[in-house]
Design a protein that fits this description.
Layout lengths: L1 H12 L3 H8 L3 H8 L8 H10 L4 H4 L10 H4 L2 H12 L4 H23 L11
Helix pairs in contact: 2-3, 2-4
């Protein structure tokens, strides 16, 4: 069950096993074992890393939650449709959108991480 859901979401996002393994910080062989249900008891830490990069949660991977059903019309208003149409007309591909999404997520993560660190200024004055 866990492996099937991970594989389904991975393929939906267009990730190879290697790509997801790299993103989640697990070995390719371990991820393959999970997907093929050879390893059917991965730690919650591993599942959390995988779930994050698949835009889901641990509960869904464990089969405790149904996949969220989102109607496109509820999320995308006319402005979104126009932005997407213009981007496609200008040559953006699905891969480009995925890469842009990863860039935005990476920038948010970096910004959140930097906000957690206090700013320290060291001043050295020679006499």
């Amino acid at each position: 069950m866990i492996g099937e859901r991970i594989k389904q979401l991975r393929e939906y996002k267009g990730y190879s096993i290697t790509k997801l393994a790299d993103l989640a910080g697990v070995s390719k062989s371990y991820l393959s074992y999970i997907e093929r249900n050879v390893q059917n008891n991965p730690s919650l830490q591993v599942l959390a890393k995988i779930a994050f990069h698949l835009d889901t949660n641990i509960e869904y991977l464990l089969g405790e939650e149904l996949s969220p059903k989102v109607r496109v019309d509820e999320v995308l208003d006319e402005e979104w449709h126009s932005i997407i149409r213009n981007a496609v007309d200008e040559g953006m591909s699905k891969g480009d959108f995925r890469a842009l999404k990863e860039l935005v997520r990476s920038n948010k993560w970096r910004d959140e991480r930097n906000q957690q660190r206090p700013n320290i200024i060291i001043l050295h004055i020679d006499n």
